[in-house]
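WARN no homologs supplied; continuing
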Amino acid sequence: MIVLMFQGTDAHQSEREGAPACSCPEPSGLTRGRLACMSSAEEEQPAETYTSTLDASIAAIDAQIAVHRAHIASLERDRAQLVEVKRREQLIEAEHCMQALQAPILRLPRELLELITHAALPPQWSTAVSGTICFPLLQSCRRIRVVALTMPELWCTIVLPPNQSLIADKFYDVAQRYLVRAQPLPIHLVDPTKQYRRQDARLDRWMVEHMARFRTATWCMHLANLAPTKVAAPSLESAMFLATYRKGAADTTPSGLLTIVDAPMLRTVTIGVFLPLAALELPWAQLTELNVRIFRFRPENLHVFQSCVALSTLNVSVEYEFALPECPPIALNSLRTLKVGDYATLLAPRIVTPVLTDLSIYISTQQHWDPVLDWTPRMIPISTWLKNSTPPSSLHALTVTGLWRDSHLDDLKDVFLLLPTIDHLSLSCRESDAAEDHDLLKAIILLDDTAILPNLEHLSLQIEHGAFETMLDFGTALKKFALCRWANGGERPTGRLTFRSLACEKRECRCYVETEWLETLKAEGILVYRPTCT
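OK structure emitted
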């Protein structure tokens, strides 16, 4: 506190003190005492008492706060303990509930658990890329998971990714687990895309390494990366061998590039168009089904067909015309189904098939071919074959695919006349404008010569484009043909006609025909099938 003291200036006091007298006038209103703003000693004592009281109050409050904080901390500890107790009780209750739910499962026999597992399989388990489908049941119970992991039939199908860029380390890891879990069963290796453009040397090495485990396999080989290889395939039953396109592959690919040995169960083989036959050494003599597309036929290919003495089904097509060298007959004494496409018809005269039941002729309709020029050269060998050798009496089904113009009618008529035993005829028109131009089909069914297919019992018609309902004139002719051949007054209704439109599988129904048309035939005992929409 600042205290200002002012003293008087009278001359007597100055003289007594020996100080010189001040000549300044004395300020008016000031006294020699304390100023009014200065507290006295009596005033200071109550202020100090009040401060002490405040300090005591603050200290008391601080003490109460400390007590409350300690109480809050104690309550928080108690709460945390109660929360933990609640959590443990919930876990115990959940465990008891799970045990109560699992108790019946734990008591079930393994056989029943296997049935449950099979019933719970996801719909795409065997068709989706391996390792991409979740199986929720395996996560619900440890015992079910253990049982499922020891069921080899669940893991015996390996599906390749659709793109070669997806065949990475993850796929090979998954495939290895499948191979282990599927033991001792063989593996079905599926390539859903059947790509001709896979170029994966690692996949080729993986195929060679595990070929002994495969029951069925689709293998697209990269011929430039594959060294001559000999592999054993004791479990292999069916195989598809493909190759990426490489210019001049037929001339540069070494013979016996892939040799399959120790394959006693191999029965079905499919060979793609870009893979030379000479590149494969297979147990040809034991095959029962061979499907092969040949880009350019070579004389050495004859050895393959002559070696397939046990075939029951042969499906062969050749892309380009070739000159067939002189060779012994190809004796296929067990062959029952023969499908020849494009210039593979040139092989027909050399084939001996005493028990043939089903003959299929496919003539391509690619745009770079002139259909008028190409149809006849590819059909003449069939007529020659049938004329020079007596068709087997067992031949009952004929399929002709790739119809083009009504100018082809004479070629077909020659074939029909040579096959009087045919009772099932299938005609497939692949023309782009099939809905409007069916002159050939119409001409065929209007053949009234009783010597043509006298035993015909069923006629199947297939179109790739258009719709049957737009073929008005054709429908009238077909109805007349059906009534003349099969009308029985409604007794014993029998399926006589089949309509199939490939457009039904892509878009809306295209095999629809008028109800009145169907009812007219049905009244005479003639039923019409439409398998694409039923």
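The two ends are 112 Å apart (CA to CA).
OK
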